[in-house]
């Protein structure tokens, strides 16, 4: 790659070329602080600044349509020339010093205005709280949920007030944004205490128990306890475990998950959602089950060619399977 092409990567933004040259528009519903989603008809792109490379990159559901601004143009402009003359000619119009008046640079302020504003009541307070609580040493996860203490210690589970198990949620920038909490039922109640923190928003509870830099498998579950239960039932190295805290993914979570899957294109995606065969004793048709609806959604977020496996628990969820195995021992 010669100096001119390298310069294009650093000095020409994908969003300027996409909007001006190819008619893309910003999807304000899916965009967030760290990434901008562009659409043109059925085509959907996610554009973000690569943390390591330092320049704009993009990806789409087509695994061959991703990369730098040069890849973006090559995919859309006929170019059989090894020197990429058509690509160079187009990008020169957007390079610093170009005199072409028809090119309008999209300002950072405009991009920020296009993206939805996330109402963050007290993220600093959430971060302060999560940094202050000790690691989990309660009895709910071990006695009631059947999780080994050694397993709990491999994940970032905190101990909150009243013995609550705290599952911190982070953004892709590794910033705290909220947390799941779980505990035994209150006196007189049958259902366990469960909820999500006020004052923030859902990201993902993420764990990689062997702390490996190599990720060969990504397991997506509905809850933090399910992530730990799955690991205890099926421990595998080089695996990233993700809890979404529910089956309804926000637009921020969708963009965040697409970015994670993009970063590990060779990993196998495991859809480990619940087995919602019945609700209150009433049979639910397969395509109407929340776990299956979520599995389809996550599948659509993955890039083409990614290996995807649907792994369904035998009982309601992975913790129910874990408890059944414990009782049979």
Structure description:
The chain is α+β, with helices and mostly antiparallel strands and 329 residues long. It has 2 domains: 3-114, no CATH class; 123-328, Dna Topoisomerase Vi A Subunit, Chain: A, domain 2 (3-Layer(aba) Sandwich). Helix content is 32%, strand content 19%. The protein is built from 12 helices and 16 strands. The protein has helices at 3-11, 14-22, 69-74, 85-92, 108-114, 123-132, 140-144, 149-152, 224-233, 251-263, 290-301, 318-328; strands spanning 25-26, 36-40, 43-49, 56-59, 66-67, 158-159, 165-170, 176-183, 193-196, 205-207, 217-221, 239-243, 268-271, 278-279, 282-283, 308-310. The strands form 4 sheets. A 5-stranded antiparallel β-sheet has the order 1-2-3-4-5, sandwiched between helices. A 5-stranded mixed β-sheet has the order 10-12-11-13-16. Helix 9 (224-233) packs across helix 12. The longest helix is centred in the C-terminal third of the chain and has 13 residues, at 251-263. The protein starts with a helix and ends with a helix. Mean pLDDT is 88; it is low at 115-120.
